[in-house]
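User: Can you predict the 3D structure for this chain?
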Amino acid sequence: MTALEDQTVYIVGAGIVGICSAIYLQNAGRRVIVIDGSQPGSGASFGNGGMLSVDSFSPMAMPGMVRNVPKWLADPLGPLALRPSYLPKVAPWLLRWIAASRMSVVRSSAQALRSLNSQSMILYRELLGDVVFRDLITAQGSLQVWESEAVSKSQRVAASLRAEFGVEAENLTGDQCRDLVPELSPNVLRGIYFPRNGHTTSPSQLIQALVKRFHESGGKILQERVLRIVPNGDGGAILWTEIDNHVAKTLIVAAGAYANELLAPINVSLPLEAERGYHINAIASFAPRMPILHPDFGIGVTPMSEGVRIAGTVELSGVRSPADEKRADALLLRASSLFPAQEILIGRRWVGSRPSLPRSVPVIGQLPGVGRLYAAVGHGHYGMMAAPATGKLLAEIVTGQPPSVDPEQFSFQRAWQI
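Assistant: Here is the predicted structure, written as structure tokens:
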């Protein structure tokens, strides 16, 4: 093996996490080859809500949240759907998710997520440069709204953690929410404004801008579907694709919800589940000035260059089951309720799978079994936000640089410890 081959890093997965990791590894002097069977930036990276919430850090499993599950499942328009046939398979993950809602776990998970998400804007500017950053990312803040004055246990915990972490947030009345976003329903009774949060006006253009930078720096993307990862006996692995074999001295798996399928042949498994989400790109008579998140509806509404994106909900059904267009259409009904005086029409439906771990904290670092096998997997709802800090930390781990954040928070072993 030549010196160049020994310094080459292969990354399986050309989503936002894989591409950010590739650029940071390039910056560290490595030659990088990215492999993906789909176009770069497709999948969850394409279809997400575009929010770059630097002051968001709450894991999905929060104290008291499990009490809401029966109500959510009983509501055909609710934020959670579970296909009965999938229950036996998802049950172990659900039990871990419930265990992860203990306050001690929530605090450590929130600290880990905070260390990634809080860097989002700074690092995207670093990756994109000032001009492209200003074209694709805006910091107008974000707004969470509720149609009830009752404050749940999980909301009280989130408020306590915000105070602990020094997060800037402003509690608003319903009228104050409408001062910020006049189109909001009169049913909105309260909200929280996060002035430091922002969003991208186009997730797809953001990823393509990063891909362009990667290519301009000598990076290579192979559009090949990886069928199998086979250890080759010298600490590396052989990637079997549908058209070739690639010898990877150093390998990173950033394959999102499909990671376990690739890792199974080498007897490595993560407590990973696919949280299927939907979006509609709406043709609307308005565009809110900032992203709006309605936690009780499980939707986010984001102004984008191609219209208003309404995204969200969680469906537990695996990565291979057929899409349910009713879940996408439910987003339109919820958005119409949130903005009752506005005309909102479906322009495009989309479905994709978020790679989620019970703690909501991704695995970033070395995996057992193969000497130089690493993962950047399990970002759930925070992939777009956490991708730059993930790529930076992973490059530091792979190249032996001092880590910018504590890597132990994101270890393979920690993902299994609840």
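The longest helix spans residues 383-399. The chain has a mean pLDDT of 94.
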